[in-house]
């Protein structure tokens, strides 16, 4: 079972299960991607992230054992950096009963179905956003336009400043809520039909 649905972390369990001939649980711990290991439904329910095993492409491995999930995150991040910046991890050892109670179910199927809906709409020349909302049983809340801003950062502050006028195209934006996915999204896309930019959650 992947710990999150998003990015590479949602596919690695499929590869491992395929090589080992094991089934994959159609669930995860957040129904989206997350920045830190303790930010999942398993951790909220009190399931410990430790022991966590980390391994890199050279076969180097480490076992992380800590008292709470926040400390597991801090230690694992430091170990990951020492191991080259990329590791695969196994954590949140739990029983089937715990997984049934605390995982978010059906998220792998949802991701696969959403990808199929987008691919079908793109091949048919249909509106991608409408297809996404249709698959997720979502509803458009508003649409409008927004200006692009570039973020500039310094050591102690992060501030936003507008980019030059010539490089400031309008973006279409729509907020959408979906009972199927369980969160609201704000999707931005260019003025050309069916050309979507990445969505950002609000």
Automatic annotation (TrEMBL):
Protein origin, superkingdom: Bacteria
UniProt-listed Pfam families: S-Me-THD_C (PF20906), S-Me-THD_N (PF06032)
Domain S-Me-THD-like C-terminal: 68-144
Start and end residues of each S-Me-THD N-terminal domain: 1-65
Protein name: Uncharacterized protein
Protein source organism: Pseudaminobacter soli
């Amino acid at each position: 079972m992947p710990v999150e649905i998003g990015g590479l972390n949602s596919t690695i369990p499929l590869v491992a299960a395929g090589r080992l001939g094991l089934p994959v649980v159609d669930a995860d711990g957040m129904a989206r991607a997350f920045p830190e290991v303790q930010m999942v439904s398993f951790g909220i329910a009190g399931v410990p992230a430790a022991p966590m095993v980390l391994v890199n492409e050279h076969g180097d491995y480490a076992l992380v054992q800590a008292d709470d999930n926040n400390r597991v995150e801090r230690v694992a991040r430091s170990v990951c950096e020492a191991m080259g910046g990329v590791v695969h991890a196994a954590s949140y050892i739990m029983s089937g009963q715990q997984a049934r109670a605390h995982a978010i179910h059906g998220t792998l199927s949802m991701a696969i179905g959403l990808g199929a809906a987008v691919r079908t709409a793109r091949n048919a020349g249909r509106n991608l956003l409408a297809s996404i909302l249709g698959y997720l049983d979502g509803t458009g809340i508003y649409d409008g336009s927004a200006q692009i801003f570039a973020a500039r950062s310094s050591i102690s502050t992060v501030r936003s400043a507008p980019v030059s006028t010539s490089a400031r195209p309008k973006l279409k934006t729509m907020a959408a809520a979906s009972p199927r996915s369980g969160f609201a999204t704000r999707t931005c896309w260019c003025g050309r039909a069916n050309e979507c930019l990445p969505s950002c959650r609000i």
